[in-house]
Amino acid sequence: MSGECFKCGREGHFARDCQAQSRGGRGGGGGYRGRGGG
């Protein structure tokens, strides 16, 4: 995997795959609001 992330500036992943943006969990994989019962 080659690609320099412009978010953190690291190589090996893209900004969309950067874990630095994981700050809250708004619009991601498995981020439902109310996944407990209903």
Describe the protein:
Keywords: Metal-binding, Zinc, Zinc-finger. InterPro entries: Znf_CCHC, Znf_CCHC_sf. It contains no helices and no strands. Residues 28-33 have low confidence and may be disordered. It is elongated and about 40 Å long. It is largely without helices or strands. 0% of the residues are buried.
Describe the SSE topology:
Blueprint: no helix or strand
GO molecular function: nucleic acid binding; zinc ion binding
Domain CCHC-type: 5-18
InterPro entries: Znf_CCHC, Znf_CCHC_sf
Q: Strand fraction band?
A: under 5%
- Count of DSSP strands: 0
Tally the helices: what do you get? 0
Work out the helicity level.
Answer: under 10%
Average of the residue pLDDT scores: 69
Overall SS class? little secondary structure
The geometry reads as elongated
How far is it from the N-terminal to the C-terminal residue, by CA? Answer: 41 Å
Largest beta-sheet details: none
User: What is the rounded Rg?
Assistant: 14 Å
Low-confidence stretches: 28-33
What's a concise summary of this model?
The chain is mostly loops and 38 residues long. It has no helices and no strands.
List keywords for this structure.
38 residues, little secondary structure, 0% helix, zinc-finger, zinc ion binding, metal-binding, nucleic acid binding
